[in-house]
Amino acid sequence: MPFLEIDNLEKSFGSARILKGVSLEIEEGGFLVLVGPSGCGKSTLLNTIAGLESITGGEIRINGRRVNELHPSKRDIAMVFQSYALYPHMTVAQNIGFGMEIRGVPKAERDKAIAEVAQLLQIGHLLERKPRQLSGGQRQRVAMGRALVRKPQVFLFDEPLSNLDAKLRIDMRTEIKRLHQRMGTTIVYVTHDQIEAMTLATKIAVLKDGTLQQFGTPAEIYNNPANTFVADFMGSPAMNLIPATIASDGPSLAVVMEREAREPIRLPLPSPPASLSAFRDKKVVFGVRPEALTDLEGADRNADAIATAHCHIEVVEPAGSDTFAVTNLGGKGVVARLRADAQIQPGTDAPLAFNLSKAVFFDPTTEQRIV
Amino acid sequence: MSASSQEVATRNGVFVRAAIYVLLILFAVYYLLPLYVMVVNSLKPLDEIRQGNMLALPREWTLAPWASAWSTAQIGVSPTGLKPYFLNSVLMVVPAVAISTILGALNGYVLTKWRFRGDTIVFGMMLLACFIPFQIVLIPSARILGLLGLAGTVSGLVLIHAIYGLGFTTLFFRNYYEAFPTELIRAAQIDGASFFQIFRRILLPSSGPIIVVTVIWQFTNIWNDFLFGSSFSSVDSIPITVALNNLVNSSTGVKEYNVHFAGAILAALPTLIVYIVSGRYFVRGLMAGAVKG
Fold first, then answer.
1. Are residues A287 and A338 in the same domain?
2. Residues A131 and A89: beta-carbon distance below 8 Å
3. Shared domain check, A250 and A213
4. Does A135 touch chain B (CB under 8 A)?
């Protein structure tokens, strides 16, 4: 049974529809990440779950209880804000204890709870300091401590790592994941960083312009993107979306990609998606992730459909762990991900292995995936 | 070559600096001269003023003019000195400043953190109170005070000053709270704090600078007000500004200039003290909205 349910949620500011009928659900102990470009409505969605913003339509249920009309403090949630929102004139201990103080929890009990949380987050030595005396990472911990101490049914995180520098962000990401595994509390987490989404989530919801683009596990989102937006947004470097044509190949199909001043590349498809035959002799968008387009030695040996084609390499970008090579297919730059020590020179032709079992196809007019 | 030109530059710098200081000192003297004249002459016997030099130091120092101005000088028809009127002013200023500051803070809180449809219109209308010439409102105000039974009382003056101060106090607090992070309010809401708890526990502790600015502003304006004081007071609610005028304009007997000087200083003293005590916060508070942190 889902623990947090969002049912056909609508939110408008005047005539502007911010959320257009979003439906989501997450089981108890799940980690739901809302991801999307800025302005997609993800933070608004989080605020409506928190009760900080009213909703225009639909229903939000936590543990089977409708919370639409409940005040934020009555929803049994806790929230970590992007700016941390620590009360500047209070010490760390007062910050963590403020909610309990408001609820009239006795001092002794409060101190005990604060000490527990401080120990969990290793901020015991900071309790008497003011927020301005803390570093970014420490403020982040205090903000999480303030949320943890409530022992809520649902944690809400609003881009909690976006104010940290790159290295600290990765450390805190791991920390959040560890905390989640330890506490097992349901989490809703907003980010615009697709790597954070992939690493943390048990379920990802991709939003764009207030509509849900896709909702699924990280693997589903990554391997089977529902449309070109999701394909392009999730993954770094982004999935290659190559304009192509579907042609007959005996009884089966082949994908044909134009090239500049060369013969088109023609790759036979051993097991094309069922609806693809309707696109025979029509244009499609051929989606292949950089890691499914690699040098011959780097190709996945377990993959059942590897096709090889010679491509003209325009640019080579060594990145340490991998080497990225850029070629041109269908009039677009296409990124291939090769082994770090792959011997490849810009300006030459090199054989590239297409892992067709990982390839996806999109309808160029609707931008939806062809299944 | 370059060393000598640098030398010239340094010398020029010194010259410019000296010129600036001379100018600043001249202006300081120019501004302080009236105060000097007032203080010096309030400490002289009347004869010395009559004889001549206003700028000279007293030959015979005396506090008698101060004592007279405070407790025995003729104000209008009664020889009470400024004391009772000083008290009237205190009784008027303290509640009026407190009420207008607290309400202004609440207004600022609501206008920035609990926005509602048409809030900018409401704010715009409140701003009118800052710019409206008070002569326009004299007659309607008199009517209202009459209806409320507050005509000619200190409470009536408190009410009028609190209302007409509200425009400025709201402006101050609204602009200050505009820069206050809304996420803090939301965090407090999730922590379960009520409307007034958020105001008192989260917002007010961070409002020190703007409270000082508002209090100084309101105190100075209300203490120095003459128009409302002369329009709406009766014999036993006259504020000190009006009493000072009555002191100086008393037509009986000789003009005791030394007493007038002492009285004027007495009337100005509270605003002076308020400014000296908290003036540095005033500047800091005015800057606070502009530069964050």
1. yes
2. no
3. no
4. no
Radius of gyration of chain B (CA): 25
For residues A255 and A245, is the Cβ–Cβ distance under 8 A? yes
Select the residue of B181, B191, B206 nearest A73 (Cβ to Cβ): B191
pLDDT in tens, chain B (293 residues): 556 677 777 778 889 999 999 999 999 999 999 989 999 988 988 888 888 778 888 888 888 888 888 888 878 778 888 888 999 999 999 999 999 999 999 999 999 988 888 888 988 888 887 888 888 889 999 999 999 998 888 999 999 999 999 999 999 999 999 988 888 999 999 998 999 999 999 999 888 888 988 998 999 999 999 999 889 988 888 899 998 888 888 766 778 888 889 999 999 999 888 888 877 776 665 555 443 33
- 8 Å CB contact of B181 and A83: yes
User: Do A47 and A141 belong together in one domain?
Assistant: yes
The answer to whether A81 contacts B192, with C-beta atoms less than 8 Å apart, is: no
Measure the CA–CA gap between B182 and A178, rounded to whole angstroms.
30
CA dihedral in degrees (A95, A152, A185, A46; nearest 10)?
A: -80
Report the phi/psi class of residue A209: left, alpha or beta, with left for phi > 0 and alpha for psi in -120 to 50.
left
Indicate whether A104 and A216 sit together in one domain: yes
Quote the Cα angle for A106-A131-B281, to 5°.
105
Domain enclosing residue A321, as ranges:
240-362
> What DSSP state is assigned to residue A296?
T
Q: Is the ipTM of this complex over 0.90?
A: no
* CATH homologous superfamily of B82-288: MetI-like (1.10.3720.10)
What is the 8-class DSSP label of residue B12? Answer: H
For residues B62 and A118, what is the distance between their CA atoms, to the nearest angstrom?
A: 68
Pick from A14, A50, A330, A349: which is nearest to A189 by CA? A50
Question: Which residue of A81, A144, A158 to mutate against B (max B Cβ within 10 Å)?
Answer: A81
The verdict on a CB contact (< 8 Å) between B202 and A87 is yes
Interface test with A, best of B116, B180, B190 (most A CBs within 10 A): B190
How far, in Å, CA of A173 to CA of A182, rounded? 14
* Residues linked to residue A323 through DSSP beta bridges, in sequence order: A318, A338
A112-168 pLDDT tens trace: 999 999 988 888 899 999 988 888 888 988 999 999 898 889 999 999 888 888 888
CB pairs under 8 A between A and B: 53
